[in-house]
Amino acid sequence: MNERDLNSLKNMLMFAERINNRIANISLEQFLDNEEKQDLILYPLGQLGENANRASEELREKYHEILWNPIISIRNRIFHSYEDINMSIVYQAAIDHIPVLIKQLKNILIQNKIMSISSVENAKKMFGVTNDIAKAGYLLLTGEFLDFDGTDSDGYAWGHNHVCRVYDYEIDPGDSIMVFVNEGNIRLSLDGHGFKLSKRPNKDQISALRSYVNYYRGEIAFDLHDEDGKLIFSMTYPQKTASSKVISDIINYFDSGIIPNKAARREINGEWINPS
């Protein structure tokens, strides 16, 4: 991917995130009655379209699932026919389509190994890595443990949402955790004995997870989520559980869709149930 298209995608994501964060706190009535609130959305919406307009034809054809023409059309309205804009349509578009666009843009960047590689490398530079499992905050795609035994520039202890700082675009600190996990990194409990994941662990991560489980003598718990943060199931294991058992339960789910019988919650036919 050439640098121009890469910058267009990154900027589109940045402005889409900005719109999404702002519109969440504004009702339709507030939006229609307040020009300042309209400007809070219209400016990044225009910049979103401006960056979409800079994308090459090759990029648009390759990722045709993105609504390039409507995005650019809104940009043209904002810049050239402001008085003709239907604010109700703008509001509904932001509510309905921006979250979908954000997911599409993130998937494109991840597919091209732009977000996942750069974010991991940035995280390693910012936090460092450690061999001390008790000090780890994430298990990275590289199979290394991210060192959370430190503080930020304001003296606050590192927390999971500090990974927002590894991205070169604007992202809500709370959302950054799920973004980082969806890239394939595994969130580790800062109190130990647990982790959260949404992607199948790779070979390096499986080896590190064995060390993690063994470190806590098999007394471990994990949550497995989908990409939207919805819990699929949880597992809790007693002391002396073999690491091979924990790893097997995880891999069996990703490879065969098998949910362990003792999972804390399971979804069957779209409904959450407690296992018998």
Keywords:
276 residues, alpha+beta, 2 domains, 7-stranded mixed β-sheet, two-stranded antiparallel sheet, 11 helices, 9 strands, 51% helix, disordered C terminus
Overall description:
By secondary structure, the chain is of the alpha+beta class. The chain folds into two domains: 3-111; 115-273, no CATH class. The chain has helices at residues 3-23, 28-33, 35-54, 57-62, 68-80, 87-96, 98-111, 115-127, 173-182, 203-215, 243-256; strands spanning 129-130, 136-139, 145-147, 186-188, 194-197, 220-225, 231-237, 266-268, 271-273. It has a seven-stranded mixed β-sheet with strand order 1-3-2-4-5-6-7, with helices on both faces. A two-stranded antiparallel sheet has the order 8-9.
Element order, helices and strands?
A: HHHHHHHHEEEHEEHEEHEE
Strand order of the largest sheet: 1-3-2-4-5-6-7
Main sheet summary: 7 strands, mixed
- List the total number of helices: 11
Helix content: 40-55%
Rounded to the nearest angstrom, the radius of gyration is 21 Å
Q: What class would the helix/strand composition place it in?
A: alpha+beta
What percent of residues are in strands? 5-15%
